[in-house]
Amino acid sequence: MKGILTFKDKIVLAPLWALTLLPLKVLYPISDILYFITYYIIGYRKNVVFRNLVNSFPDKDAYEIERIAKNFYHHLCDYFLESIYLINISLEECNRRYTFSNLEVLERLKDEGKRVFYLTSHYGNWEWAINLDVKTPYHTIGIYKHIHNDTFDRLFQYLRSKFGCGTVLMNKTLKTIIELKRRNVLFALYSVADQRPGREDLNFWTIFLNQDTPVITGTEKLARKYDMPVVFMNVKRIKRGYYNATFELISDNPKQTKGHEIAEKYIRKVEQLIIKEPAYWLWSHKRWRYGAEEFKPKASK
Questions:
Q1: Residue 230 scores a pLDDT above 60
Q2: Considering the domain boundaries, does residue 1 fall inside one?
């Protein structure tokens, strides 16, 4: 989907475009300044971040919660500038900074002629995986939600497809699967699946980070219907500006799974990742906006 930016978009985005001509070693000191402004002056969503952390880690004291929060805000500012940096990043640099492990899992599944789901989370930098189409054996299509600002929506579609990946709106995923299967294309669908479900999808709840939490089930339903193996991308921040994603099989035979087995296994992997190094998850997201009581009426039907 290259070339979708309009002339007006390019004018609006020109300052960001110019900023990303700077190397990351220059951008990171700018990120440090942004951190100070975001945390100490603006206080962006501080109440949300601290509430989420306190509820998720009831055994941690105030000092530890504050330490995690500050590290999170540092990383959030890095994430913002790293994501914008994709405007001018080369494929060579992207491959050096965002690497993949255990590709053998994908090679085996492709040899078996299976289409797959890559599930990741809002951890580390999920935007930097734009080299999936180059580094993995599948043509990759990222599932996304429309960004309210049309200019930034077009920008991120452009960035996500920069090195060959496709993009598809969440509500068009089923149509895309049917069409690609009809054309006999072996593909992988890439989904950041740990966000809060819409009200219409509050049908599976589990305990996640010590809280009643609804989990998205749409991916699982499609995986079971079309027998698409589900693979988790376990992302680790190696150091500033470097990430590695390890592919871990969740299910290679989804049709044989029960209930919400896939969703449960996925959310447990996300939880383990967060508990190990909590600062790199998106704590500013209103993940627990819905209470479990909203689920109970549905469960009784």
A1: yes
A2: no
